[in-house]
């Protein structure tokens, strides 16, 4: 399956249409090394859907959110494309893949075939599907596309993003249902107070244990140069607060090249 072409972008919010047709808007499908989290370095097939319910100003998959591009594929075609690769791990990512009903169908079919599945999600949707690792990236206040940070306008998405970016009940459901890692994109020390508050609230809300080892701090940066300015700061914060540091291995190796 080729990388999706630059078809006109659609602001996909998630509808029942994909459930009726069994199709998914695929931005790209490729094999690479998992670059982030506890499975960093594991060869994986990445299935990147298009469309997102948030608009982080630093989004590293701009063409799935701010300007969504994609081709529509049946779930059977996606499965066939995955089977062409020699990999046991599949990463469903986006955008926000869980806004599409057919993502649940894909995850069920992948589980039936014995694949290990990771879903990279912003933590605002709880699916009804098997997932081996829920890689949940709650969005902090520093992600909001205010007028001075909006890459595509004058902050028109700021209010919607701020309203939607955190849902404590949904985060608790995810932690209780799945093996979960909480992966925070950290722009600087000023993010830590919000992370600490959110972890405390989540521990109070969820019946499942949230360990410090489940909390990962990841430096913000889409290129090697950008990571160079944040990497050391975030590593020091992980040491200070007792959380895990996660690299962005794919950026270190391939910079911002697509399909990595």
Structure report:
A nine-stranded mixed beta sheet has the order 3-1-2-4-5-6-7-8-9. The protein is globular and about 45 Å long. The protein has eight helices and nine strands. The chain has one domain: Alpha-Beta Barrel (TIM Barrel). The model is unreliable at 1-17 (pLDDT under 50). With 260 residues, it is α/β, with parallel strands linked by helices.
Brief characterization of the structure:
With 260 residues, the protein is of the alpha/beta class. Helix content is 31%, strand content 20%. It has a nine-stranded mixed beta sheet.
Which key terms come to mind for this protein?
TIM Barrel; single chain; alpha/beta; globular; 260 residues
Q: Beta fraction of the residues? A: 15-25%
Number of helices: 8
Number of domains: 1
Which descriptor suits the 3D outline? globular
- Return the CATH topology: TIM Barrel
In total, the number of strands is: 9
Terminal Cα separation, in Å? 15 Å
> How would you name the CATH homologous superfamily?
Aldolase class I
Average residue pLDDT: 91
Helix fraction, binned, reads 25-40%
CATH C-level? Alpha Beta
């Amino acid at each position: 399956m080729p990388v999706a072409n630059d078809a006109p972008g659609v602001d996909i919010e998630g509808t029942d249409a994909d459930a009726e047709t069994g199709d998914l808007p695929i931005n790209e499908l490729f094999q690479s090394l998992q670059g982030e989290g506890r499975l960093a370095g594991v060869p994986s097939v990445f299935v990147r859907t298009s469309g997102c319910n948030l608009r982080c100003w630093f989004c590293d998959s701009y063409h799935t959110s701010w300007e969504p591009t994609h081709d529509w594929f049946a779930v059977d075609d996606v499965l066939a494309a995955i089977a062409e690769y020699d990999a046991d791990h599949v990463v469903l990512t986006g955008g926000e893949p869980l806004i599409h009903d057919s993502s649940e169908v894909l995850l069920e079919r992948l589980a039936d075939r014995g694949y290990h599945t990771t879903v990279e999600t912003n933590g605002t949707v709880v699916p009804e599907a098997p997932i081996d690792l829920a890689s949940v990236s709650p969005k902090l206040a520093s992600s909001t596309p205010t007028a001075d940070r909006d890459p595509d306008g004058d902050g028109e998405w700021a209010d919607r993003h701020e309203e939607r970016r955190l849902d404590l009940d949904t985060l608790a459901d995810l932690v209780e249902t799945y093996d979960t890692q909480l992966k925070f994109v950290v722009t600087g020390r000023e993010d830590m107070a919000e992370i600490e508050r959110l972890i405390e609230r989540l521990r109070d809300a969820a019946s499942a244990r949230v360990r410090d080892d489940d909390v990962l701090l990841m430096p913000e940066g889409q290129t090697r140069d950008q990571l160079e300015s944040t990497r050391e700061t975030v590593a020091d914060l992980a040491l200070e607060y007792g959380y895990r540091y996660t690299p962005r291995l794919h950026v270190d190796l391939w910079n911002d090249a697509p399909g990595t």
